[in-house]
Design the sequence.
């Protein structure tokens, strides 16, 4: 029984490493498939903005707080959810699923999120748990993905500087998400115009 559990754990760890490595290249493949099979309309593009714009805002806002691998960020959006960057990405993906006008593309995005981002989140939590002694307390107060309604408060003074910093936003190159979304909207609009 112990050997079977050890094998399962090794398989899980192996998949988490693979998921972390393939998530960005796989994103480009999915974007290509998305653009080939999307059937956008002016209505679907307009409705998609209700999800894409808040997703972009959340990613940008979170990027201005996080100091990856240097400290456990617990302020700003990280006081509501442990993974605001991934939550923002989910919003963006859901918005583009709406823009595509194809239900099966939305289902594909859900499957990919579960297969790639869930193991990635769990892998990152393993690292955070080993790197920061305060992670357990943080995890008890702040949900993994769906946000709390009010910001979590922590008694210790080591919660970070608590302010958005534009230089962190630039350092993490979060503007790439905005440029990528603009490029996808341009491609969808061009596809729609050329189809008519």
Sequence:
């Amino acid at each position: 029984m112990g050997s079977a559990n050890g094998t399962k754990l090794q398989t899980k760890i192996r998949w988490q490493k693979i998921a972390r490595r393939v998530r960005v290249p796989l994103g480009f493949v999915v974007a290509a498939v998305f653009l080939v099979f999307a059937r956008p309309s002016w209505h679907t593009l307009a409705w998609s903005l209700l999800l894409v714009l808040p997703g972009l805002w959340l990613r940008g806002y979170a990027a201005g707080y996080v100091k990856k691998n240097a400290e456990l960020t617990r302020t700003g959006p990280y006081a509501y959810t442990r993974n605001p960057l991934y939550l923002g990405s989910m919003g963006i993906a859901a918005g583009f699923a709406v823009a595509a006008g194809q239900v099966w593309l939305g289902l594909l995005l859900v499957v990919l999120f579960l297969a790639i981002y869930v193991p990635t989140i769990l892998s990152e939590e393993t690292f955070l748990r080993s790197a920061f002694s305060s992670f357990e307390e943080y995890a008890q107060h702040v949900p993994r993905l769906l946000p709390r309604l009010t910001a979590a408060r922590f008694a210790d003074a080591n919660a970070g500087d608590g302010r958005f910093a534009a230089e962190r936003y630039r350092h993490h190159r979060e503007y790439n998400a905005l440029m990528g979304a603009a490029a996808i909207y341009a491609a969808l609009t061009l596809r729609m115009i050329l189809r008519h």
Observations:
- The helical segments are 2-37, 42-63, 84-100, 103-131, 135-141, 166-171, 175-195.
- The mean pLDDT is 86.
- The chain has one domain: 2-195.
- The chain is about 70% helix and 0% strand.
